[in-house]
């Protein structure tokens, strides 16, 4: 391993040569990384050093120590970066990908090439300036330790590496879907818009708090507050809501553009899906078709009002909080088309061209094209007891609110007596949500897929490959036992690990489980 | 490890012929009686229903669950009582929360273990592991042998005091393992061995 060949830096092209284990030469990371490390540390160091020199007469000891500390830290960061550049070597042989790094603790990691399941390229803005990319070579397992990360090779090399490892030709892939500018409107229906609008205020007061300034002491804020108290409350509320909404919508828009710019979902010739997206940070994910066990369509309430939806992959080998988005907020018809295309194994002919006619044909339900979306499968309605459960859940919170306020008003004289009305006003809303939640419940089979739908604030429809189901979990609360209901959970290695059919009748749920995976539950059913 | 695979031990699951062990079915037959856990399988209005797994857990599990409940309930109550003894002026305000914790705590300590005992059951066939657990909220879980990844035995400190052990069967799902707790230790040993042999003999990719 420590042979003379290991020390020789080589051109990236020679890397992928089909030499034997011993023969393949090692390559260094890109020199751009060296420059990036220098720039990142020297950039902030220069002004600090200049300031210290110019103002050295007036600096007290404490400031000097602080500045010195910052300089020392930046210097250490720079040295660490340089050491990493100097000590890291990688190579791709006929059998494996190897990475060696570290000065004090030498690490040698090697991944067999036939275990490589994904090669993801990312580049943050700083790396893009220096023409660099980060390559994550994954083995399709949850364990981060089993993958391999090459941070700082040139983007051209990164693309070559991916082609070499996944063996794909760039032009042969077929596009399943691409971002269309009109979809921006759906981003604004994302349910988080308002919260983003509140964030700047939270940060502002947090900073004031950290610096130790009371908001009342800030002159302009005081004046603002005075003028606010003089204005009519309705105007104040309207202005405040408008400001928060404006910030929220702008923020959402910017985030959407940054995250989804150039979004493109393609099917590669080697049975892999490739997702590319991002404006400042470009992300590129490869997902093997055999890791894909299904799709999940999510429709948050505002998005549902706008007839939009998102699609996520239900795949194995993802980290706990990782998810592969197959389609950002987009028209529902497009979501169905993408779901169908991804699950069907081939792309429908009309995919690249304008898809609205095909999509609406699917929606209308007549003569669906060959790969019909499993998400559109007709779903069985759940028993009325499920509605009773939701209605009783919807009644409790308003009653609790009303009782709480009434009690407070009776106990504390300064609490206005009419606040309990809030509970009464909540009731119609929660009841509507309860009816909607019941209407959304459904389950069914569509060819090889197990389909379940639930939720109201965020309706989810999951289509899970039946062969991916690795067990059943049946749970019953006291209410469900009285009402003859159960919640059937299909456990799987993919996605969130369990997908539930909520509040189905006992006989119906057990029959559905047996129909989905014949023979598994049958011995335990009478 | 007192490995006494005596007939008495190993025969326990199969020989669950005592009326108490067959309780679940009977229990669901008396829904009117208060505290009746209704621990049978999912009894549907018509047609299909889930039958409870064949074997109950060891009777000593009641003692174990009682011990667990006491570990949760007893310390705050004892601390409050001790403080009440030491600080006479605040006695009322210390005894009141002690009472508020102690009364539901006592009910929990008495009811939960017995209720659990009627629900917790397990069974293995040639093809699958099947286990029921819970008390107020109940769960039945099935995993096929071909999808089992690991079989482990777990013995917590309190469980050890009662000579019990738990068997944990994991699959590739992130939704959690099937746990069969409160088994006789020798029986658990035997079960782990049998399951391990069985899963190795069953072809499958466990994903």
UniProtKB/TrEMBL annotation, chain A:
Origin: domain of life:
Bacteria
- One Pfam family in the UniProt entry: bPH_2
Residue stretches spanning the membrane:
64-86, 183-205, 234-257, 394-414, 420-438
User: What UniProt keywords are attached to this protein's entry?
Assistant: Membrane, Transmembrane, Transmembrane helix
Question: Is Ligase among this UniProt entry's keywords?
Answer: no
Q: Where is this region: Disordered?
A: 1-26
Every copy of the YdbS-like PH domain together lies at 85-163, 450-507
What is this protein called in UniProt?
Answer: YdbS-like PH domain-containing protein
Automatic annotation (TrEMBL), chain B:
Which branch of life, at top level?
Bacteria
Q: Where would you find the membrane-spanning parts of this chain?
A: 61-86, 92-111
Species whose genome carries this gene: Planobispora takensis
Q: What is this protein called?
A: Membrane protein
Q: Where is this region: Disordered?
A: 1-52
Q: Which InterPro entries match?
A: YdbS-like_PH (IPR005182)
Keyword field:
Membrane, Transmembrane, Transmembrane helix
Biased composition range(s): Low complexity: 13-40
Q: Where is the YdbS-like PH domain?
A: 117-194
> Would the keyword Amino-acid biosynthesis be found if you checked this record's keyword annotation?
no
